[in-house]
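Working notes for the structural subgroup meeting. M.R. asked for a predicted model of this chain before we commit to crystallization trials. I am recording the input and output together here so anyone reviewing the notebook later can reproduce the run.

Input as submitted:
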Amino acid sequence: MSRYRHIGLTREPFAPEPDLAFQAAALGQTDALTRLADFAAARGSIALLLGAAGLGKSMVRLALARDLAVQPGLRIVTLDRPDEWSTDVSLLRAVTLALGGEASGRTTLDLLTEIETRLNAITADDHWPLLLIDDAHRLTSSQLELLRTISSLEPHSLSLILFAEPELEERIARRRSLESRVELRHTLNPLNSVDTIALLQRRLEIAGGTDVDEVFDRTAREALVARSGGKPARLIEVAARSVDLAARRNLDRIDRAVVNEAAGYRPNTQSAARQIAFDLAGLETSDEA
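Returned structure, recorded in C-alpha coordinate form:
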Protein backbone atom coordinates (compact mmCIF):
# COMPACT_ATOMS: atom_id res chain seq x y z
CA MET A 1 0.00 0.00 0.00
CA SER A 2 1.23 3.49 -0.81
CA ARG A 3 2.78 5.35 2.08
CA TYR A 4 0.41 8.22 1.28
CA ARG A 5 -2.72 6.11 1.31
CA HIS A 6 -1.90 5.47 4.93
CA ILE A 7 -2.92 9.06 5.68
CA GLY A 8 -5.80 9.21 3.21
CA LEU A 9 -4.02 10.47 0.08
CA THR A 10 -4.35 9.26 -3.48
CA ARG A 11 -1.19 10.75 -5.00
CA GLU A 12 2.26 12.10 -4.12
CA PRO A 13 1.75 15.49 -2.41
CA PHE A 14 5.36 16.45 -1.80
CA ALA A 15 7.32 15.73 -4.99
CA PRO A 16 10.31 18.11 -5.27
CA GLU A 17 9.74 18.99 -8.94
CA PRO A 18 7.75 22.20 -9.58
CA ASP A 19 4.14 21.33 -10.41
CA LEU A 20 1.58 24.05 -11.13
CA ALA A 21 -1.21 21.79 -9.93
CA PHE A 22 0.09 22.36 -6.40
CA GLN A 23 0.58 26.12 -6.70
CA ALA A 24 -0.81 28.09 -3.75
CA ALA A 25 -1.58 31.80 -3.82
CA ALA A 26 1.37 32.99 -1.74
CA LEU A 27 1.45 36.77 -1.49
CA GLY A 28 5.06 37.16 -2.63
CA GLN A 29 4.69 34.93 -5.67
CA THR A 30 1.39 36.55 -6.65
CA ASP A 31 3.01 39.99 -6.53
CA ALA A 32 5.94 38.73 -8.61
CA LEU A 33 3.59 37.33 -11.26
CA THR A 34 1.70 40.60 -11.50
CA ARG A 35 4.82 42.70 -11.90
CA LEU A 36 6.41 40.35 -14.44
CA ALA A 37 3.20 40.20 -16.47
CA ASP A 38 3.09 44.01 -16.55
CA PHE A 39 6.73 44.06 -17.67
CA ALA A 40 5.96 41.63 -20.50
CA ALA A 41 2.90 43.61 -21.58
CA ALA A 42 5.01 46.77 -21.72
CA ARG A 43 7.63 44.96 -23.84
CA GLY A 44 10.42 45.89 -21.47
CA SER A 45 14.06 45.06 -22.06
CA ILE A 46 15.37 43.05 -19.06
CA ALA A 47 13.75 42.01 -15.78
CA LEU A 48 15.26 40.17 -12.81
CA LEU A 49 13.41 37.87 -10.44
CA LEU A 50 15.79 37.20 -7.58
CA GLY A 51 15.58 34.86 -4.62
CA ALA A 52 17.58 32.37 -2.62
CA ALA A 53 17.51 28.72 -3.63
CA GLY A 54 14.26 27.03 -2.70
CA LEU A 55 12.02 30.12 -2.64
CA GLY A 56 9.97 29.15 -5.71
CA LYS A 57 11.51 31.01 -8.65
CA SER A 58 10.93 28.07 -10.99
CA MET A 59 7.30 27.86 -9.92
CA VAL A 60 6.87 31.55 -10.70
CA ARG A 61 8.45 31.00 -14.11
CA LEU A 62 6.10 28.14 -14.92
CA ALA A 63 3.07 30.11 -13.73
CA LEU A 64 4.12 33.17 -15.73
CA ALA A 65 4.54 31.14 -18.92
CA ARG A 66 1.13 29.57 -18.34
CA ASP A 67 -0.60 32.89 -17.69
CA LEU A 68 1.01 34.67 -20.63
CA ALA A 69 0.45 31.82 -23.08
CA VAL A 70 -3.07 33.12 -23.74
CA GLN A 71 -1.82 36.61 -24.62
CA PRO A 72 -2.12 37.21 -28.38
CA GLY A 73 1.03 38.16 -30.19
CA LEU A 74 3.43 36.97 -27.48
CA ARG A 75 6.04 34.33 -28.29
CA ILE A 76 7.37 32.75 -25.07
CA VAL A 77 10.63 30.80 -25.16
CA THR A 78 12.36 29.26 -22.16
CA LEU A 79 15.86 28.11 -21.27
CA ASP A 80 15.81 26.02 -18.09
CA ARG A 81 18.65 23.53 -18.48
CA PRO A 82 21.89 25.37 -17.71
CA ASP A 83 23.97 22.22 -18.09
CA GLU A 84 23.13 22.36 -21.80
CA TRP A 85 24.46 25.90 -22.31
CA SER A 86 27.69 25.96 -20.36
CA THR A 87 29.65 27.73 -23.13
CA ASP A 88 29.01 30.89 -25.11
CA VAL A 89 28.33 29.00 -28.32
CA SER A 90 26.02 26.48 -26.66
CA LEU A 91 24.04 29.31 -25.04
CA LEU A 92 23.58 31.09 -28.37
CA ARG A 93 22.60 27.83 -30.03
CA ALA A 94 20.02 27.21 -27.30
CA VAL A 95 18.57 30.70 -27.81
CA THR A 96 18.54 30.27 -31.59
CA LEU A 97 16.77 26.92 -31.41
CA ALA A 98 14.26 28.25 -28.89
CA LEU A 99 13.43 31.05 -31.33
CA GLY A 100 12.86 28.53 -34.10
CA GLY A 101 16.18 28.92 -35.90
CA GLU A 102 18.50 26.20 -37.19
CA ALA A 103 21.55 27.17 -35.09
CA SER A 104 23.87 26.18 -37.91
CA GLY A 105 26.51 28.80 -37.13
CA ARG A 106 29.80 27.77 -35.57
CA THR A 107 30.89 31.07 -34.08
CA THR A 108 29.24 33.53 -31.73
CA LEU A 109 29.07 36.09 -34.55
CA ASP A 110 27.31 33.64 -36.87
CA LEU A 111 24.81 32.71 -34.16
CA LEU A 112 24.16 36.32 -33.14
CA THR A 113 23.39 37.09 -36.77
CA GLU A 114 20.97 34.17 -36.92
CA ILE A 115 19.31 35.28 -33.68
CA GLU A 116 18.87 38.79 -35.07
CA THR A 117 17.32 37.34 -38.22
CA ARG A 118 14.92 35.22 -36.17
CA LEU A 119 13.91 38.14 -33.96
CA ASN A 120 13.19 40.29 -36.99
CA ALA A 121 11.11 37.51 -38.54
CA ILE A 122 9.09 37.01 -35.35
CA THR A 123 8.35 40.71 -34.92
CA ALA A 124 7.52 41.05 -38.62
CA ASP A 125 4.88 38.40 -37.99
CA ASP A 126 3.36 40.66 -35.31
CA HIS A 127 4.68 38.58 -32.43
CA TRP A 128 6.86 39.70 -29.54
CA PRO A 129 9.55 37.33 -28.18
CA LEU A 130 9.80 36.87 -24.42
CA LEU A 131 12.84 34.87 -23.32
CA LEU A 132 12.77 33.30 -19.83
CA ILE A 133 16.06 32.00 -18.43
CA ASP A 134 16.05 29.94 -15.24
CA ASP A 135 19.13 29.52 -13.02
CA ALA A 136 20.54 32.64 -14.64
CA HIS A 137 23.08 33.05 -11.83
CA ARG A 138 24.96 30.23 -13.54
CA LEU A 139 25.59 32.38 -16.61
CA THR A 140 29.24 33.33 -17.12
CA SER A 141 30.44 36.91 -17.52
CA SER A 142 30.82 36.49 -21.26
CA GLN A 143 27.33 34.96 -21.52
CA LEU A 144 25.85 37.94 -19.70
CA GLU A 145 27.58 40.18 -22.22
CA LEU A 146 26.07 38.16 -25.06
CA LEU A 147 22.60 38.59 -23.57
CA ARG A 148 23.23 42.32 -23.33
CA THR A 149 24.14 42.30 -27.00
CA ILE A 150 20.95 40.43 -27.89
CA SER A 151 18.82 42.79 -25.81
CA SER A 152 20.50 45.78 -27.50
CA LEU A 153 19.79 44.73 -31.07
CA GLU A 154 18.09 47.46 -33.08
CA PRO A 155 15.23 47.79 -33.37
CA HIS A 156 14.48 46.55 -29.84
CA SER A 157 12.70 43.26 -30.44
CA LEU A 158 13.05 41.07 -27.34
CA SER A 159 12.09 41.00 -23.67
CA LEU A 160 14.29 39.02 -21.30
CA ILE A 161 13.47 37.79 -17.78
CA LEU A 162 16.26 36.27 -15.70
CA PHE A 163 15.34 34.03 -12.75
CA ALA A 164 18.35 33.87 -10.46
CA GLU A 165 19.85 33.82 -7.00
CA PRO A 166 20.70 37.28 -5.56
CA GLU A 167 24.38 37.12 -6.53
CA LEU A 168 23.42 37.86 -10.12
CA GLU A 169 22.28 41.39 -9.28
CA GLU A 170 25.73 42.25 -7.92
CA ARG A 171 27.40 40.90 -11.06
CA ILE A 172 25.06 42.87 -13.31
CA ALA A 173 25.61 46.05 -11.27
CA ARG A 174 29.30 45.88 -12.19
CA ARG A 175 28.40 46.04 -15.90
CA ARG A 176 26.92 49.48 -16.53
CA SER A 177 25.87 48.79 -20.10
CA LEU A 178 23.93 45.73 -18.96
CA GLU A 179 22.62 47.25 -15.74
CA SER A 180 21.17 50.19 -17.65
CA ARG A 181 18.89 47.83 -19.56
CA VAL A 182 17.34 46.30 -16.43
CA GLU A 183 13.88 47.80 -16.08
CA LEU A 184 12.48 45.62 -13.28
CA ARG A 185 13.97 44.01 -10.20
CA HIS A 186 11.86 41.90 -7.90
CA THR A 187 13.00 39.76 -4.97
CA LEU A 188 11.13 36.78 -3.59
CA ASN A 189 11.07 36.70 0.21
CA PRO A 190 10.49 33.67 2.46
CA LEU A 191 6.89 32.61 3.01
CA ASN A 192 5.22 33.79 6.20
CA SER A 193 3.53 31.23 8.46
CA VAL A 194 0.09 31.74 6.88
CA ASP A 195 1.35 31.11 3.36
CA THR A 196 3.44 28.16 4.57
CA ILE A 197 0.41 26.39 6.02
CA ALA A 198 -1.68 27.35 2.99
CA LEU A 199 0.88 25.65 0.74
CA LEU A 200 0.67 22.47 2.82
CA GLN A 201 -3.12 22.61 2.71
CA ARG A 202 -3.16 23.09 -1.06
CA ARG A 203 -0.90 20.11 -1.68
CA LEU A 204 -2.85 17.83 0.61
CA GLU A 205 -6.16 18.87 -0.98
CA ILE A 206 -4.90 18.12 -4.49
CA ALA A 207 -3.36 14.84 -3.34
CA GLY A 208 -6.58 13.49 -1.90
CA GLY A 209 -8.69 16.10 -0.18
CA THR A 210 -7.13 15.64 3.23
CA ASP A 211 -7.15 18.60 5.61
CA VAL A 212 -3.76 19.70 6.89
CA ASP A 213 -4.98 19.44 10.50
CA GLU A 214 -5.71 15.77 9.99
CA VAL A 215 -2.14 15.02 8.94
CA PHE A 216 -0.03 17.48 10.95
CA ASP A 217 -1.07 18.46 14.47
CA ARG A 218 -0.50 21.99 15.78
CA THR A 219 2.99 21.25 17.08
CA ALA A 220 3.95 19.67 13.76
CA ARG A 221 2.71 22.68 11.81
CA GLU A 222 4.68 25.02 14.07
CA ALA A 223 7.79 22.89 13.56
CA LEU A 224 7.31 22.83 9.78
CA VAL A 225 7.06 26.62 9.68
CA ALA A 226 10.23 26.95 11.73
CA ARG A 227 12.19 24.17 9.99
CA SER A 228 11.34 25.36 6.47
CA GLY A 229 12.61 28.88 7.06
CA GLY A 230 9.90 30.09 4.68
CA LYS A 231 11.39 28.16 1.76
CA PRO A 232 8.81 26.11 -0.19
CA ALA A 233 11.45 23.60 -1.31
CA ARG A 234 12.60 22.96 2.26
CA LEU A 235 9.00 22.75 3.47
CA ILE A 236 8.17 20.11 0.87
CA GLU A 237 11.34 18.16 1.67
CA VAL A 238 10.69 18.03 5.43
CA ALA A 239 6.97 17.32 4.97
CA ALA A 240 7.78 14.41 2.65
CA ARG A 241 10.24 12.94 5.15
CA SER A 242 7.70 13.38 7.94
CA VAL A 243 5.08 11.46 5.98
CA ASP A 244 7.64 8.74 5.30
CA LEU A 245 8.36 8.36 9.01
CA ALA A 246 4.66 8.35 9.89
CA ALA A 247 3.93 5.65 7.32
CA ARG A 248 6.79 3.44 8.50
CA ARG A 249 5.64 3.75 12.11
CA ASN A 250 1.96 3.39 11.29
CA LEU A 251 1.16 6.79 12.81
CA ASP A 252 -2.21 8.34 12.06
CA ARG A 253 -1.03 11.89 12.75
CA ILE A 254 2.31 13.69 12.69
CA ASP A 255 3.59 15.70 15.67
CA ARG A 256 6.57 17.96 16.37
CA ALA A 257 8.87 15.07 17.26
CA VAL A 258 8.34 13.44 13.86
CA VAL A 259 8.94 16.71 11.99
CA ASN A 260 12.10 17.44 13.98
CA GLU A 261 13.43 13.97 13.28
CA ALA A 262 12.55 14.31 9.61
CA ALA A 263 14.41 17.61 9.52
CA GLY A 264 17.52 15.88 10.80
CA TYR A 265 17.34 17.21 14.34
CA ARG A 266 18.08 14.99 17.32
CA PRO A 267 17.44 16.95 20.54
CA ASN A 268 19.21 15.95 23.73
CA THR A 269 17.94 16.64 27.23
CA GLN A 270 20.01 19.81 27.57
CA SER A 271 19.05 21.41 24.28
CA ALA A 272 15.43 20.31 23.85
CA ALA A 273 13.90 23.27 25.69
CA ARG A 274 16.19 25.67 23.87
CA GLN A 275 15.22 24.16 20.49
CA ILE A 276 11.49 24.42 21.22
CA ALA A 277 11.97 28.10 22.06
CA PHE A 278 13.88 28.52 18.79
CA ASP A 279 11.06 26.90 16.84
CA LEU A 280 8.47 29.18 18.37
CA ALA A 281 10.66 32.22 17.78
CA GLY A 282 10.94 31.20 14.15
CA LEU A 283 7.17 30.94 13.94
CA GLU A 284 6.73 34.43 15.38
CA THR A 285 9.28 35.81 12.95
CA SER A 286 7.46 34.20 10.03
CA ASP A 287 4.15 35.65 11.26
CA GLU A 288 5.62 39.12 11.07
CA ALA A 289 7.05 38.59 7.58
